[in-house]
Design goal:
It is found in: Cell membrane. This is Bacitracin transport permease. The chain starts with a helix and ends with a helix. 78% of the residues lie in helices and 0% in strands. It has 9 helices and no strands. It has one domain. The relative contact order is 0.15.
Length: 204
């Protein structure tokens, strides 16, 4: 079986689920279209938090995104395809999308670049970010705007980019100094607050 046929068959398998389980369509439309606003809010919260580690995490995610987009543009030069709804009949198209080269998926690249970076930094429950990225990738197929190959290649590019950036940035002496200063700064603030409280208690 040719790769293009496997790609189309895999797309049909996922996209047709929207015809069988119509009650799930609103959920996947929300994930595919509006979860990007949740990601932006999360990025802003991390960026403006008092944690330098969170700021470095966001910076790493942006770097990973830029690298991923560059690699995606290169990949798009070697292979291109339109959205499934523009190439295949009877697609369960649930959202509006302009017809252009959909390989690889930009939406997937954005989410995997950020979510995998967050996972690498947060560990523990950070795996939920990875689940969110996977859900977004599946949702883009479910709503009919991307093939599985579009999503898979976008995910692979982003995961590799995020891991490389994470490994390199954390080893930089500038990053280590930045994190050390954070610890010193937090200790100074806590010490100052403690002294202030003690001073207030003496006044009483």
């Amino acid at each position: 079986m040719a790769l293009s046929e496997m790609n189309s068959n895999s797309f049909r398998m996922i996209n047709n689920l929207g015809k069988q389980y119509t009650e799930l369509n609103p959920f996947f439309v929300f994930i595919a279209e509006y979860m990007i606003f949740f990601l932006v809010l999360a990025v802003l919260m991390f960026l403006f938090s008092r944690s330098n580690k969170n700021r470095i995490m966001v910076i790493c995610a942006f770097i990973a995104l830029v690298i991923s987009e560059i690699l995606a543009k290169i990949a798009g030069k070697f292979h291109s395809n339109y959205q499934p709804f523009a190439e295949l009949p009877n697609v369960n198209k649930l959202v509006e999308k302009a017809v252009n080269n959909s390989f690889p998926s930009d939406h997937t690249i954005i989410f995997f670049s950020f979510c995998i970076t967050f996972w690498l930094f947060k560990r523990g429950w950070g795996f939920l970010w990875g689940i969110l990225a996977v859900l977004v990738g599946i949702s883009r197929i479910w709503v009919g705007v991307h093939y599985p190959a579009d999503v898979l290649v976008g995910a692979i590019i982003s995961i590799v980019s995020a891991m490389i950036v994470y490994k390199i940035v954390l080893k930089l002496s500038l990053t280590k100094k930045f994190l050390r200063n954070q610890g010193v700064g937090e200790q100074s603030i806590l010490s100052a607050l403690s002294k202030q409280k003690k001073g207030q208690s003496k006044d009483y």
